[in-house]
Design brief:
By secondary structure, the chain is of the alpha+beta class. It is built from 8 helices and 15 strands. The strands form 3 sheets. Strands 4-3-5-6-7-8-9-10 form an 8-stranded mixed beta sheet, sandwiched between helices. A 5-stranded mixed beta sheet has the order 12-11-13-15-14, with helices on both faces. Strands 1-2 form a two-stranded antiparallel ribbon. Helix 5 links the parallel strand 11 and strand 12. Helix 2 packs antiparallel against helix 3, helix 3 packs antiparallel against helix 4 and helix 5 crosses helix 8. The radius of gyration is 21 Å and the shape is globular. The N and C termini lie far apart (82 Å). It binds 2,6-di-O-phosphono-beta-D-fructofuranose.
Amino acid sequence: MTNQQQPVAQEHALDRDCKTLSRHVLEQFQSFSAEAQDLSAIMNRIALAAKLISRRLSRAGLMAGVLGFTGEVNVQGESVKKMDVYANEVFISVFKQSGLVCRLASEELEEPYYIPENCPIGRYTLLYDPIDGSSNVDINLNVGSIFSIRQQEGNDIDGEARDLLQDGRNQIAGGYILYGPSTILVYSIGNGVHSFILDPSLGEFILSQENIQIPKHGPVYSTNEGNFWQWNEAIRDYTRYVHRHEGYTARYSGALVGDLHRILLQGGVFIYPGTVKKPEGKLRLLYETAPLAFLVEQAGGKASTGTQDILDVVPEKLHARTPLIIGSKEDVDLVESFIQDRARRDSDEAVVAGS
Ligand code: FDP
């Protein structure tokens, strides 16, 4: 490197190091409006939660009382892990005194948490899944957090949070944090999808990729095939199709965020369908499928229940579930085509049987 090139390279490295998350959010708005500042501050708080959770996860095996179950069962009927409780409390703690939100709603809370009256109250609601892929926690595999930001509508005097029961197009921002070999935060405020990597030496999330576009098609299909015989025929038809055609490969990590991150960058489809007994599936709309759908649509991909865009689903309750087919547009279309085919065949058969 010549002496002249050296300062230029140094300048680039410095420029990159200064592209922090909060600065990036402000740049997206191209203004210092109250909304821009609020959103930048909210993302900064989410980043703080991510750093605290990441720090805890990185030492979990060395500390007492961090791994394993609490012995309790949450509102979803799932056994609660100590990390679920910790991560849930982290988000509440970082937002409680922030003056940015009025409520937080999470997978671990039966009812939303309302900011107490003696704390400053903001106009936004944070919805989140504190630890996504909990089964991976105890074995040091990747897990994630998912978040969505919505603005409060009305004053929610009865504390029923009914304004949250709206479709996903109402979201202001959505994103996830992936706790893997590095900690990555991916977000969208409706203006493209951007990813940041936590630089532990700086304690800052630094921009790594701007305006991520998901490939139109990819080789990966990501689903728990252990449920094959509980699925309906349409999803089984699709699975048989990928088994019989070249160019497909299965990847399933047990953490939606990890599987989706792969698909966002390399293309493919993640499927968590309903089963014959539970047609609504397993994943929750407001803090899992809707924020990820928001993100994936922003990256040029698609997210569907199989018959409807996820972003058009209006939940009947806070913890409503939806099936999820998400990823590259062509791959989601293909899964949907199997569902439509089956529905056509079923209705033809019904007509024949009735005649
Ligand atoms: P988990 O219950 O372990 O938190 O969010 C739900 C989720 O994980 C996803 O992250 C994951 O993709 C899926 O459930 C795993 O469920 P199965 O074990 O039924 O495959």
